[in-house]
Amino acid sequence: MGTTRLLFARAVLVRGDFQRGSEYEKSLVAIMAGEGSLAHWNPMDTTLPRPGATPYNSFGANNAEHVWNYASAHDGVEATILTMMQANMTPWVELLRRPRLNALQLCEGFAHCPWGGVGDTLPLRLAEQWRTDWLAYVHERRSLVAGYGPWTYTRRGKPRR
To answer: Please, are residues 96 and 24 in contact by the beta-carbon 8 Å criterion?
Structure first.
């Protein structure tokens, strides 16, 4: 069934206790679009293994590293947050916790962390492009996050009870 990148971004922001708002959502959606992933419940192509996950693709020495298909929406959101909480992501995570930043500032911070590939400006360009057509982008088919099973979060990013 899957969900949209926007709803996935909201769940990550809420569950990760980050700032909320359209600029923060836009930055995460820009990163997801930059990744272009079809991995199930893993639009940011995280490589953190979780129980029940299966390899989406392999890379690195002897193809020993994997981007994962996660078994559930919850696993994907939690794996994304756990990846973000790694020590090498601290400068970017600190930005996500600061109020009143715009998507370009947030994407610039991402471009300087290892996940983004140091100097990767694609999320910056995407965030700038979407400054004017953000609402149209949110509803486009390409903004889907693949996944089997139900989306287990509300529209506000909180887990369903």
So the answer is: yes
pTM: 0.87
Instruction: Determine contact, residues 77/40, Cβ cutoff 8 Å.
Output: no
- Rounded to 5°, the CA angle 140-144-146 comes to 160
b vs e for 61-77, b when ≥16 Cβ sit within 10 Å of the residue's Cβ? eeeeebbbbbbbbbbbb
Question: Which tokens is 81 given?
Answer: 């947050």
Q: In whole angstroms, give the CA distance from residue 127 to residue 105.
A: 10
Q: What is the DSSP letter of 54?
A: E
Locate the domains of the chain by residue range.
Answer: 3-145
Q: How many CB atoms lie within 10 A of CB 89?
A: 18
At 85-107, the pLDDT tens digits run 999 899 999 999 999 999 889 98
Residue 140 CA to its chain's centroid (Å)? 17
Place of tokens 């600061």: 98
Specify the DSSP class assigned to residue 142: G
With the C-alpha atoms ordered 113, 118, 121, 122, is the resulting torsion angle positive or negative? negative
The answer to whether the Cα torsion of 140, 5, 3, 1 is positive or negative is positive
